[in-house]
Write a structure and sequence with these properties.
Elements (H helix, E strand, L loop, with lengths): L7 E5 H15 L3 E5 L1 H6 L2 H7 L6 E4 L2 H9 L6 E3 L9 H6 L3 E4 L2 H9 L6 E5 L14 H10 L4 E5 L12 H12 L8 E2 L3 H6 L10 E2 L25 E13 L4 E2 L5 E2 L4 E6 L16 E4 L2 E6 L7 E4 L11 E8 L2 E3 L1 H7 L4 H7 L6 E4 L2
Parallel strand pairs: 1-19, 2-3, 2-9, 3-4, 4-5, 5-6, 6-7, 7-8
Antiparallel strand pairs: 1-10, 10-13, 10-17, 11-12, 13-16, 14-15, 14-17, 15-16, 17-18
The chain binds pyridoxal-5'-phosphate (PLP).
Pyridoxal-5'-phosphate binds next to helix 9.
Length: 368
């Protein structure tokens, strides 16, 4: 749906493909599951899958229904289900559509054992310290044996790093994987370890030609690190959230702006009102000073973000008028704004900004 209200999310599929090429170079011989969960981090799962069709080795996502829809659209690559399957009724689709579930709990093995036909490939999830999903290293031998008895032989060992993006790194969890692979229980199993952060920072997590990496955020041009920009990694922004000024106010000294009046002028100033608020997915916690751009000039937000609007400082932008273009993040007519910088100002990460763009914001795809 397009609307006359001027807010838009534009998705640059050429930038997505550029970022995929960066991941491909980093991955070396390893194969790539392009992570397109959460509607491709808000970028449109089917458009993104289509744009990566001739590039990627596989897709990783959550819902069996989405995986089936990809198959019906002609995607033949392996599809990894990151949380596996949830109910016995899911198993027939796994078999029929050749989907690869993540197996992380004995309950799933019981469901498989009771099924008339079983999936032919799977990932065994290893808990290497995140304590979210997965089997302990000492359980893997028995899990593998049970799967083999069920006729499930095409297995990959998978984990997820809790701190690949921080200074703590991956040494401890990687050691657990290596120890397991050096034992009978893990011998000969291909692995899938690296998310974006590990892929970028830890070559030792990538693996070889039998192994898989799982980049997500980097494909969408976000940095997984708080201390390194996406540009420094060679990534291009994919999503641009853009709108326009719909009002201008000229304020005297001591006047206040927005709900709670949290911003107060110290000199006379011109402010702009942007058609974008938290109901569009813009973070309500973004404080005064969050980066934004108007009419090609970098500036800052003022006061509290409201449901449908926010205020910007037009002090250095005398040419700004009602209708002037605004970039909330990305690269637009309004200027260039780093989504990671907006996220940092709001105390969150670009992942959340991208995923939170609301259904009422029309999305447009370019560069296919
Ligand atoms: C989301 C997810 C990824 C991708 O992580 P990024 O930080 O976006 O690269 C990889 N693996 C698993 C298991 C995930 O849930």
């Amino acid at each position: 749906m397009t609307t006359s209200r001027p807010i838009r999310a534009s998705i640059d599929l050429a930038a997505l493909r550029h970022n995929f090429a960066v991941a491909r170079r980093l991955a070396g011989a390893a194969k790539i599951w392009a992570v397109i969960k959460a509607d491709a981090y808000g970028h449109g799962q089917f458009q993104v899958a289509q744009a990566l069709y001739d590039l990627t080795d596989g897709y990783a996502l959550l819902e069996t229904e989405t995986a089936v829809a990809l198959r019906e659209r002609g995607h033949r690559q392996p599809i990894l289900l990151l949380e596996g399957f949830f109910a016995p009724e899911d198993i027939a689709a796994l078999v029929h559509f050749d989907l690869t579930p993540t197996l992380h709990h004995h309950t799933q093995l019981d469901m498989l054992a009771a099924a008339p036909k079983r999936p032919i490939s799977a990932c065994i999830k290893l808990n290497t310290g995140m304590n979210r999903l997965g089997f302990r290293p000492q359980e893997v031998g028995a899990v593998r044996q049970r799967l083999q008895e069920l006729g499930i032989h095409r297995l990959t060992l998978m984990n997820h790093f809790a701190e690949a993006d921080t200074s703590v790194g991956i040494r401890e969890p990687l050691l657990r994987v290596q120890q397991l692979r050096a034992s009978d229980a893990g011998a000969g199993l291909p692995v899938s370890l690296a998310n974006s952060a590990a892929l970028i920072r830890y070559p030792e997590s990538r693996g070889g030609a039998e192994d898989w990496v799982r980049p997500g955020i980097m494909l969408y041009g976000g940095s997984p690190f708080s201390d390194t920009t996406a540009a420094a990694i060679g990534l291009q922004p994919v999503m641009t959230l853009a709108s326009r000024l719909i009002g201008i106010q000229t304020l005297q000294v001591g006047e206040r702006v927005g709900y709670g009046g949290t911003f107060q002028t110290e000199k006379p100033m011109r402010i702009g009102i942007v058609a974008c608020g938290y109901a569009d997915g813009y973070p309500r916690h973004a404080p005064t000073g969050t980066p934004i751009a108007v009419a090609g000039v970098a500036t800052r937000t003022l006061g509290r973000v409201s449901m449908d609007m926010l205020a910007v400082d037009l002090g250095d932008i005398p040419q700004a008028k009602v209708g002037s273009p605004v970039t909330l993040w990305g690269v637009g007519e309004g200027g260039t704004v780093d989504a990671d910088a907006v996220a940092a100002a709001a105390g969150t990460i670009s992942y959340e900004l991208f995923c939170a763009v609301a259904p009422r914001v029309p999305r447009q795809w370019q560069g296919a």
